[in-house]
Write a structure and sequence with these properties.
Elements lengths: L1 E6 L4 E2 L6 E8 L4 E8 L3 H4 L2 E4 L5 H4 L2 E6 L4 E4 L1 H12 L9 E5 L2 H11 L3 E5 L14 H8 L3 E4 L4 H13 L4 E4 L13 E2 L2 E2 L12 H18 L4 H25 L6 E5 L5 H6 L2 E5 L9 H13 L4 E4 L6 H10 L2 E4 L7 H15 L3
Parallel strand pairs: 8-9, 8-10, 10-11, 14-15, 14-16, 16-17
Antiparallel strand pairs: 1-6, 2-3, 3-4, 4-5, 6-7, 12-13
C-alpha cells in the first residue's frame, strides 16, 4: 500500500508497515501541537481518527489531502474537509468549553452518571443501544469526543475497551480512566468465551444487569466524581445517597416479584442475565455454546432440558443472531420473548425483565 501526503504546512510524517502511524503537526506561530493517528485496519470504514492535544481551529492550520492507493481500488480521502467537519462538530467556542464531558462504554453507565451528577457533566456513550458490545468499533467522532473528555469510565471487562484505550490515552495522556467494576464479585466460566474472542479471564461482563452490581458501580463512580470535581463533593454524595435508596427500593420490588417461588430456570440465547439470576436465585440456561451457535447435538440436549424444566419461553436480545433460539422455541411450541440489555431507561428495564421472567418461569 502506498500513502502519499500533500500538505501546505510544515511538519513531519513517519509511515511504517505497521497498522498504525502518527502524524504530529507543530504550528510554529501558535506554539501548539496536534496529533493525527491513522489505523490501517479501520481506514475503509472510518478513514481516520483525529486527536487534538490543544483546543484550537485545527482546520485553519492544517490542510492535507491523503491519497490511499490499494491494489484493487483507489480511495481519495480529503482530510481537510473531514477534519473541518469533525472539528466543527466537536469544538465549541471558548465561552462554551466549560461544559464538562465524561465518556462511558455503555448506556446503563450513563444512567448512573446522570443520577449522580445531574447536569454537571455531559455524557458521551461509546456503544449505541442496538450495537453488540462485544464487537462494536467506535466512530472517529466518538473517539474525538472521548479524547476531549475529563474522564473515561470503563467497565474494565470488555476486550474492545483495551483497543480503544490505547488510542485514547495516546492522544490525551492526561485523561483520567476509572474502572466501574472494581469490588464486584465477578462470575467466571466457559460460558463467556465467545468464538474468536473472549472476555477478561472468561468473566461475565454483564454487570449492568443486576441491582447489586450497579450499587457497587454507583459507589465507584460517585467516588471518582468527587475526585474529578471536588468543589461539588457534597452534591455528588447527596445524590449518591438518594440513588442508593432508589436501588434498594427496586431490589425489594424485584424480590417481591419472585418471592412466591424457589429456584427457577429460564433459557436464553446469550447468557447476559447471570448476575440477575444470582441475585434472585434463578438458573440461567444459555443456548450459545462457548459463544457460538449450538451444534445439532447440543440443540437436542437443550430441547430435552427445556422439556424437563417445563420452560415455555425462550429469551433473546436483538443484538445477536437468535436463529437457534427460534428453532428451539418452535420445537417446544414455546414463545420467544425479546428484551433489551442496553436500554437507557435502566430501572424500568430491570423491572420489565423481572416481570417477564416471573410471568414465564414454571413455579
Amino acid at each position: 500500500m502506498l500513502i502519499s501526503i500533500h500538505k501546505q504546512s510544515s511538519g513531519l510524517i513517519v509511515i511504517s508497515k505497521t497498522q498504525k502511524f502518527t502524524y504530529t503537526f507543530n504550528d510554529q506561530n501558535n506554539k501548539k501541537f496536534y496529533r493525527l493517528s491513522l489505523r490501517y485496519d479501520k481506514m475503509l470504514t472510518t478513514a481516520m481518527t483525529f486527536y487534538p492535544t490543544k483546543c484550537c481551529s485545527f482546520a485553519k492550520l492544517f490542510k492535507t489531502t491523503l491519497i490511499i492507493y490499494t491494489m484493487k481500488r483507489i480511495f481519495l480521502v480529503l482530510l481537510s474537509g473531514l477534519i473541518a467537519g469533525l472539528w466543527s462538530c466537536n469544538t465549541t467556542p471558548e465561552s462554551k468549553t466549560k461544559q464538562k464531558v465524561v465518556t462511558v462504554t455503555i448506556l446503563p453507565q450513563q444512567y448512573l452518571i446522570n443520577q449522580l451528577a445531574g447536569d454537571k457533566f455531559r455524557v458521551n456513550v461509546l456503544i449505541p443501544e442496538d450495537a453488540n458490545h462485544e464487537t462494536y468499533e467506535p466512530t472517529a467522532r466518538q473517539m474525538v469526543e472521548t479524547g476531549n473528555s475529563f474522564a473515561y469510565f470503563k467497565l474494565g471487562l470488555l476486550d474492545v475497551e483495551k483497543s480503544w484505550l490505547e488510542n485514547i490515552c495516546e492522544s490525551n495522556p492526561e485523561l483520567k480512566v476509572y474502572i466501574t467494576s472494581t469490588g464486584i464479585d465477578l462470575i467466571k466460566g466457559d460460558a463467556h468465551k465467545h468464538g474468536d474472542h473472549s472476555h477478561e479471564g472468561g468473566i461475565d461482563p454483564h454487570i449492568w444487569l443486576s441491582v447489586s452490581t450497579m450499587r457497587i458501580q454507583a459507589e465507584n463512580i460517585a467516588t471518582s466524581l468527587t475526585e474529578i470535581d471536588p468543589e461539588n463533593k457534597e452534591y455528588y454524595l447527596s445524590r449518591y445517597n438518594k440513588l442508593l435508596l432508589s436501588l434498594d427500593s427496586l431490589d425489594s420490588e424485584i424480590k417481591h416479584i419472585f418471592s412466591s417461588a424457589g429456584t427457577k430456570s429460564f433459557m436464553i440465547f446469550h447468557p447476559s442475565l447471570g448476575y440477575f439470576a444470582r441475585d434472585y436465585n434463578l438458573e440461567q440456561i444459555p443456548i450459545e455454546e462457548e459463544g457460538k451457535e449450538p451444534s445439532p447435538a447440543y440443540m437436542r440436549q437443550l430441547i430435552d432440558i427445556a422439556r424437563e424444566k417445563e420452560i415455555t419461553t425462550i429469551f433473546i436480545s436483538s443484538q445477536f443472531n437468535n436463529q437457534s433460539a427460534v428453532t428451539i422455541a418452535h420445537q417446544l411450541n414455546a414463545r420467544v420473548e425479546e428484551f433489551n440489555p442496553s436500554s437507557p431507561d435502566w430501572s424500568n428495564n430491570m423491572r420489565s425483565i423481572a416481570q417477564k421472567l416471573a410471568g414465564t418461569i414454571k413455579k
